[in-house]
Amino acid sequence: MKENPVILGIESSCDETSAALIRGRQLLSNVIFSSATEQAKYGGVVPEIASRAHTEAVDEAVKQAIAEAGVTVNQIDAVAVTYGAGLLGALLVGLSFAKSFAYALKVPLIAVNHIRGHLSVSYLADENLKPPYITLLASGGHTAVIHVKSYTEFEVLCSTTDDAAGEAFDKVARILGLPYPGGPNVQRLAQSGKAEIKLPSPLVRGTQFSYSGLKTAVINYCHNAEQKGETLKREDVAASFQKTAILPLVNKTVESALALGVKTVTAGGGVAANDFLRNSLASECEKTGIKLILPEKKFCTDNAAMIAAEGLVQYNAGNFADMSLNACAQIPLK
Ligand code: KG4
Ligand code: ZN
Questions:
Q1: Mutate-to-test residue for ligand 1 from 271, 307, 331, 333, highest number of ligand atoms within 8 A of CB
Q2: How far apart are CA 244 and CA 214, in angstroms?
Q3: pTM score of the predicted model
Q4: How far is CA 230 from the centre of its chain?
Q5: Which residue out of 17, 121, 139, 163 has the highest number of ligand 1 atoms within 8 Å of its CB and is therefore the one to mutate?
Q6: 138 and 295 in contact (C-beta within 8 Å)?
Q7: Minimum-distance ligand to the CA of 275?
Q8: Which whole-number Å values give the CA distances from 23 to 6, 8, 100, 293, in the listed order?
Q9: How many CB atoms lie within 10 A of CB 265?
Q10: Between 171 and 41, residue with greater pLDDT
Q11: pLDDT tier at 56 (50, 70, 90 boundaries)?
């Protein structure tokens, strides 16, 4: 096994078709084609549209990623691909492509858990990052504060019992009449609003997150205003929701690091692209003397650099897949 292998990562779990190359922890290229604009017409991801878009884009994404990386196909040492969690049809496109590519090049295939990819992309953000550290993972499907004990050992310290934080952003966006994808649009609207509306915290008994109650409270607030004939200050709702949704995530992350005496914190997943989250986490970490490693925003939302990064972790652990690898809609973190 090589010390700094060249790894091709392929991601197609939702509406982004992405291919990336890394050499060791150095990012060489990251190409993303998104069907989000197409999906926005329907107010969310339509699985069939996603699968078709992946089929049309995967070949070009890989070609461009190789060209931009300035490597030849023969220099690729392994192919890492998302096999779950995600939309089955969408996953199968990237997976089939990766299998045939690895087979043709006679290089190992690596099965990547998408969620672990969100976590491992921080290894590209800081080449000196090593476990132990605490990570805040907040995406459209997952919300958890995790103690990363080694490259392959994790303890989930706090997670959601119902909706994920990103899902709550998407649902609140709909309530406020904002288009898909919801998260960035709620953030934009929140900029001009006051976060003064009282909403229930998603942190329940200090040990679990629950976002469905917060979403329902936003719905009720909006309905009540409508019934009373009051003009709804949508920007105030967006700002209040954003603050209520995010601060407990930030606090729980920092508190966990302090309680366990862990000196480093990272974050990942689409919600980690949120500026309020990034700024709050940065200021809490600074106050408490914790080192914060935040991947750039474009590496928080879905991308293949994160799949290649987790591919490197699995490569170093000697975990390789074979041609029987299948796609899985749901897989746990561990
Ligand atoms: O990690 P990701 O790209 O896909 C999943 O693996 O789920 O996360 C997508 C989620 C969506 O729910 C989206 O609304 C949310 O991340 N998101 C944001 C922001 N950007 C993306 N939420 C809040 N603020 C943002 N700026
Ligand atoms: Zn994701």
A1: 271
A2: 8
A3: 0.96
A4: 37
A5: 139
A6: no
A7: 1
A8: 4, 9, 21, 20
A9: 26
A10: 171
A11: very high
